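Thread: "does anyone have the structure for this chain?"

Original post by V.I.:
We have the sequence but no experimental structure in hand. Need at least a predicted one for the grant figures.
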Amino acid sequence: MMHEFKPTIVWFQAITCNGNTHSLLSSNSNRFELFLNSFNLIYHPSLTINNSLEYILENQKEIDFLLVEGSISSNEFIFSISNDSSKNLLEKLALRSKYIIAVGSCASFGGIHAKFTQNDDICGIKEALENNNLQTLIHPIINLSGCPVHPEWIFQTLFSLKTFGKIDLDEVGRPKELYSTLAHHGCTRNEYFEWKVEGNFGQKEGCLFYNQGCRGPMTHSSCNKILWNEISSKTRVGMPCIGCTETDFPRNNMLETKKNMGIPQEVPLGISKRAYLSISGVAKTFKIDRLHKKLME
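Reply from O.Q.:
Generated one for you, C-alpha coordinates below.
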Protein backbone atom coordinates (compact mmCIF):
# COMPACT_ATOMS: atom_id res chain seq x y z
CA MET A 1 0.00 0.00 0.00
CA MET A 2 1.44 3.35 -1.08
CA HIS A 3 1.43 6.19 1.39
CA GLU A 4 0.74 9.79 0.38
CA PHE A 5 3.82 11.98 0.19
CA LYS A 6 3.88 14.41 3.11
CA PRO A 7 5.84 17.61 2.37
CA THR A 8 8.11 18.81 5.15
CA ILE A 9 7.40 22.02 7.03
CA VAL A 10 9.81 24.02 9.17
CA TRP A 11 8.26 26.83 11.21
CA PHE A 12 10.94 29.38 12.07
CA GLN A 13 10.19 31.97 14.75
CA ALA A 14 12.14 35.22 14.61
CA ILE A 15 11.16 38.46 16.43
CA THR A 16 7.59 37.60 17.37
CA CYS A 17 4.90 37.70 20.04
CA ASN A 18 3.85 34.15 19.01
CA GLY A 19 0.45 35.47 17.97
CA ASN A 20 0.42 33.55 14.70
CA THR A 21 1.23 30.32 16.48
CA HIS A 22 -1.68 30.96 18.85
CA SER A 23 -3.87 31.64 15.82
CA LEU A 24 -2.83 28.34 14.26
CA LEU A 25 -3.73 26.50 17.48
CA SER A 26 -7.15 28.20 17.47
CA SER A 27 -8.02 26.76 14.07
CA ASN A 28 -10.85 24.36 13.33
CA SER A 29 -9.83 21.05 14.94
CA ASN A 30 -10.73 19.00 11.87
CA ARG A 31 -8.72 21.28 9.60
CA PHE A 32 -5.77 21.20 11.99
CA GLU A 33 -5.89 17.40 12.06
CA LEU A 34 -6.01 17.29 8.25
CA PHE A 35 -3.02 19.64 8.16
CA LEU A 36 -1.00 17.39 10.47
CA ASN A 37 -1.98 14.31 8.47
CA SER A 38 -1.06 15.93 5.14
CA PHE A 39 2.26 17.59 6.03
CA ASN A 40 5.30 16.58 8.03
CA LEU A 41 5.83 19.33 10.60
CA ILE A 42 9.42 18.51 11.43
CA TYR A 43 10.15 21.65 13.44
CA HIS A 44 8.19 24.22 15.38
CA PRO A 45 9.78 25.61 18.57
CA SER A 46 6.50 25.30 20.50
CA LEU A 47 4.84 22.27 18.92
CA THR A 48 7.54 19.69 18.11
CA ILE A 49 10.06 17.94 20.36
CA ASN A 50 11.96 15.55 18.09
CA ASN A 51 14.24 18.07 16.37
CA SER A 52 16.01 21.24 17.41
CA LEU A 53 16.72 24.09 15.05
CA GLU A 54 20.40 23.18 15.23
CA TYR A 55 19.55 19.66 14.11
CA ILE A 56 17.49 20.99 11.20
CA LEU A 57 20.33 23.26 10.08
CA GLU A 58 22.86 20.44 10.28
CA ASN A 59 20.85 17.54 8.86
CA GLN A 60 17.86 18.71 6.83
CA LYS A 61 19.16 19.18 3.31
CA GLU A 62 15.80 20.08 1.77
CA ILE A 63 12.72 21.75 3.20
CA ASP A 64 9.49 21.85 1.22
CA PHE A 65 7.80 24.69 3.11
CA LEU A 66 9.61 27.21 5.29
CA LEU A 67 7.08 29.18 7.34
CA VAL A 68 8.52 32.24 9.05
CA GLU A 69 6.83 33.98 11.97
CA GLY A 70 8.18 37.36 13.08
CA SER A 71 10.32 40.15 11.69
CA ILE A 72 14.01 39.77 10.85
CA SER A 73 17.17 41.46 12.11
CA SER A 74 20.89 41.02 11.55
CA ASN A 75 21.50 41.97 15.18
CA GLU A 76 22.08 38.76 17.13
CA PHE A 77 21.44 40.59 20.43
CA ILE A 78 17.85 41.44 19.38
CA PHE A 79 17.16 37.82 18.56
CA SER A 80 19.54 35.25 19.96
CA ILE A 81 19.25 31.55 19.14
CA SER A 82 22.10 29.24 18.22
CA ASN A 83 24.37 32.26 18.83
CA ASP A 84 23.28 33.67 15.50
CA SER A 85 21.01 36.41 14.18
CA SER A 86 17.56 35.77 12.78
CA LYS A 87 18.75 37.06 9.40
CA ASN A 88 21.64 34.61 9.16
CA LEU A 89 19.42 31.74 10.25
CA LEU A 90 16.74 32.75 7.73
CA GLU A 91 19.30 32.80 4.92
CA LYS A 92 20.55 29.32 5.81
CA LEU A 93 17.01 27.94 5.89
CA ALA A 94 15.90 29.79 2.76
CA LEU A 95 18.69 28.29 0.63
CA ARG A 96 17.34 24.78 1.18
CA SER A 97 13.60 25.60 0.99
CA LYS A 98 11.29 25.18 -2.01
CA TYR A 99 8.63 27.59 -0.75
CA ILE A 100 9.01 30.43 1.74
CA ILE A 101 5.88 31.74 3.44
CA ALA A 102 5.80 34.81 5.66
CA VAL A 103 3.25 34.09 8.40
CA GLY A 104 1.80 37.35 9.72
CA SER A 105 2.47 41.03 9.14
CA CYS A 106 5.80 41.15 10.96
CA ALA A 107 7.29 38.48 8.70
CA SER A 108 5.61 40.00 5.64
CA PHE A 109 6.39 43.70 6.04
CA GLY A 110 8.21 44.26 9.35
CA GLY A 111 5.06 44.99 11.33
CA ILE A 112 4.95 46.26 14.88
CA HIS A 113 8.61 45.55 15.64
CA ALA A 114 9.86 47.57 12.67
CA LYS A 115 7.41 50.39 13.45
CA PHE A 116 7.92 50.94 17.17
CA THR A 117 11.57 50.04 17.63
CA GLN A 118 12.49 52.62 14.97
CA ASN A 119 15.31 50.30 13.99
CA ASP A 120 16.04 50.30 10.26
CA ASP A 121 17.62 46.87 10.63
CA ILE A 122 14.29 45.17 11.44
CA CYS A 123 12.21 44.23 8.41
CA GLY A 124 10.12 41.55 6.72
CA ILE A 125 11.70 38.43 5.25
CA LYS A 126 11.51 39.54 1.60
CA GLU A 127 13.42 42.73 2.35
CA ALA A 128 15.92 40.84 4.49
CA LEU A 129 16.68 38.35 1.73
CA GLU A 130 16.73 40.96 -1.03
CA ASN A 131 19.23 43.05 0.92
CA ASN A 132 21.56 40.07 0.78
CA ASN A 133 21.03 39.65 -2.98
CA LEU A 134 19.79 36.12 -2.46
CA GLN A 135 18.72 35.26 -5.99
CA THR A 136 18.57 31.47 -5.73
CA LEU A 137 14.98 31.11 -4.48
CA ILE A 138 12.87 28.69 -6.53
CA HIS A 139 9.56 30.48 -5.95
CA PRO A 140 8.59 34.03 -4.95
CA ILE A 141 8.10 34.67 -1.24
CA ILE A 142 4.44 34.40 -0.23
CA ASN A 143 3.19 36.98 2.26
CA LEU A 144 0.32 35.92 4.51
CA SER A 145 -0.12 39.23 6.25
CA GLY A 146 -2.37 39.75 9.25
CA CYS A 147 -1.93 40.43 12.95
CA PRO A 148 -2.37 37.61 13.48
CA VAL A 149 -2.93 35.78 10.22
CA HIS A 150 -6.16 33.80 9.91
CA PRO A 151 -5.29 30.10 10.40
CA GLU A 152 -7.46 29.08 7.45
CA TRP A 153 -5.34 31.31 5.19
CA ILE A 154 -2.30 29.24 6.19
CA PHE A 155 -4.08 25.97 5.44
CA GLN A 156 -5.54 27.12 2.13
CA THR A 157 -2.15 28.38 0.94
CA LEU A 158 -0.33 25.19 1.90
CA PHE A 159 -2.93 22.89 0.35
CA SER A 160 -3.05 25.00 -2.84
CA LEU A 161 0.73 24.83 -3.20
CA LYS A 162 0.81 21.12 -2.43
CA THR A 163 -1.88 20.42 -5.05
CA PHE A 164 -1.04 22.88 -7.83
CA GLY A 165 2.56 23.86 -7.14
CA LYS A 166 1.91 27.59 -7.47
CA ILE A 167 -0.43 30.33 -6.37
CA ASP A 168 -1.29 33.72 -7.89
CA LEU A 169 0.07 36.66 -5.90
CA ASP A 170 -0.83 40.34 -5.81
CA GLU A 171 1.65 43.20 -6.14
CA VAL A 172 2.90 42.80 -2.55
CA GLY A 173 3.15 39.02 -2.61
CA ARG A 174 -0.19 38.04 -1.03
CA PRO A 175 -2.32 35.20 -2.48
CA LYS A 176 -5.03 36.74 -4.63
CA GLU A 177 -7.56 34.10 -3.64
CA LEU A 178 -7.37 35.36 -0.05
CA TYR A 179 -6.54 39.05 -0.42
CA SER A 180 -8.29 40.19 -3.60
CA THR A 181 -11.41 41.34 -1.73
CA LEU A 182 -11.75 43.85 1.08
CA ALA A 183 -12.62 43.31 4.74
CA HIS A 184 -15.61 45.53 3.88
CA HIS A 185 -17.02 42.78 1.67
CA GLY A 186 -19.28 40.61 3.76
CA CYS A 187 -19.37 43.10 6.64
CA THR A 188 -22.76 42.97 8.34
CA ARG A 189 -22.64 46.75 8.85
CA ASN A 190 -22.59 47.67 5.16
CA GLU A 191 -26.08 49.16 5.13
CA TYR A 192 -25.06 51.53 7.90
CA PHE A 193 -22.01 52.46 5.86
CA GLU A 194 -24.14 53.21 2.79
CA TRP A 195 -26.49 55.53 4.71
CA LYS A 196 -23.76 57.07 6.86
CA VAL A 197 -25.16 55.86 10.17
CA GLU A 198 -22.24 55.79 12.60
CA GLY A 199 -22.01 53.45 15.59
CA ASN A 200 -19.60 53.30 18.50
CA PHE A 201 -16.92 50.87 19.60
CA GLY A 202 -18.51 47.68 20.95
CA GLN A 203 -22.00 48.35 19.59
CA LYS A 204 -23.75 45.61 17.64
CA GLU A 205 -25.12 48.08 15.08
CA GLY A 206 -23.82 51.09 13.15
CA CYS A 207 -20.83 51.74 10.89
CA LEU A 208 -17.37 52.21 12.41
CA PHE A 209 -15.74 53.96 9.45
CA TYR A 210 -16.56 57.63 9.99
CA ASN A 211 -15.37 58.12 13.57
CA GLN A 212 -13.89 54.87 14.88
CA GLY A 213 -11.10 54.42 12.32
CA CYS A 214 -12.41 51.27 10.64
CA ARG A 215 -10.22 50.38 7.65
CA GLY A 216 -12.54 47.75 6.19
CA PRO A 217 -13.23 49.69 2.95
CA MET A 218 -9.51 49.88 2.11
CA THR A 219 -8.06 46.68 3.59
CA HIS A 220 -7.38 43.63 1.43
CA SER A 221 -8.65 40.74 3.53
CA SER A 222 -11.24 37.96 3.56
CA CYS A 223 -11.99 38.25 7.30
CA ASN A 224 -15.72 38.76 6.73
CA LYS A 225 -15.93 35.90 4.24
CA ILE A 226 -13.76 33.32 5.99
CA LEU A 227 -14.93 33.93 9.54
CA TRP A 228 -12.73 33.48 12.59
CA ASN A 229 -13.64 30.26 14.39
CA GLU A 230 -16.22 29.96 11.59
CA ILE A 231 -18.37 32.35 13.65
CA SER A 232 -17.36 35.98 13.64
CA SER A 233 -14.92 38.79 12.84
CA LYS A 234 -13.69 42.04 14.36
CA THR A 235 -16.35 44.19 12.75
CA ARG A 236 -19.15 41.78 13.67
CA VAL A 237 -18.44 42.23 17.37
CA GLY A 238 -17.99 46.01 17.22
CA MET A 239 -14.24 46.26 16.73
CA PRO A 240 -13.06 48.47 13.85
CA CYS A 241 -10.85 46.83 11.24
CA ILE A 242 -7.31 48.09 11.89
CA GLY A 243 -5.95 47.25 8.45
CA CYS A 244 -3.51 44.65 9.77
CA THR A 245 -3.00 42.98 6.38
CA GLU A 246 -1.67 46.14 4.71
CA THR A 247 1.94 47.22 4.23
CA ASP A 248 1.48 50.39 6.36
CA PHE A 249 0.32 48.50 9.47
CA PRO A 250 0.46 49.55 12.25
CA ARG A 251 -0.55 53.18 11.78
CA ASN A 252 -0.69 55.84 14.45
CA ASN A 253 -4.06 56.49 16.15
CA MET A 254 -5.60 53.38 14.66
CA LEU A 255 -8.96 53.74 16.37
CA GLU A 256 -9.86 57.17 15.09
CA THR A 257 -10.75 58.44 11.63
CA LYS A 258 -8.48 61.24 10.45
CA LYS A 259 -10.55 64.05 8.95
CA ASN A 260 -10.28 67.41 7.24
CA MET A 261 -13.21 69.71 7.99
CA GLY A 262 -15.26 66.74 9.14
CA ILE A 263 -14.51 64.69 6.00
CA PRO A 264 -12.43 61.47 6.16
CA GLN A 265 -8.94 62.01 4.72
CA GLU A 266 -9.03 58.59 3.07
CA VAL A 267 -12.01 57.29 1.14
CA PRO A 268 -12.88 53.68 0.21
CA LEU A 269 -10.79 52.06 -2.50
CA GLY A 270 -12.09 52.32 -6.05
CA ILE A 271 -13.86 55.68 -5.80
CA SER A 272 -12.58 59.22 -6.20
CA LYS A 273 -12.82 61.59 -3.25
CA ARG A 274 -15.07 63.94 -5.21
CA ALA A 275 -17.49 61.15 -6.11
CA TYR A 276 -17.46 59.83 -2.55
CA LEU A 277 -18.28 63.25 -1.13
CA SER A 278 -21.16 63.62 -3.55
CA ILE A 279 -22.59 60.23 -2.62
CA SER A 280 -22.11 60.91 1.09
CA GLY A 281 -23.85 64.26 0.83
CA VAL A 282 -26.88 62.67 -0.78
CA ALA A 283 -26.98 59.80 1.72
CA LYS A 284 -26.90 62.18 4.68
CA THR A 285 -30.02 63.95 3.47
CA PHE A 286 -31.98 60.77 4.21
CA LYS A 287 -32.76 59.46 7.65
CA ILE A 288 -33.51 55.75 7.63
CA ASP A 289 -35.65 55.38 10.74
CA ARG A 290 -35.31 51.62 10.73
CA LEU A 291 -31.53 51.81 11.01
CA HIS A 292 -31.49 54.55 13.63
CA LYS A 293 -34.01 52.62 15.71
CA LYS A 294 -31.87 49.48 15.62
CA LEU A 295 -28.84 51.56 16.59
CA MET A 296 -30.63 52.84 19.70
CA GLU A 297 -31.89 49.43 20.84
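V.I.: this helps a lot. The chain has a mean pLDDT of 89.
O.Q.: and The longest strand covers residues 63-69.
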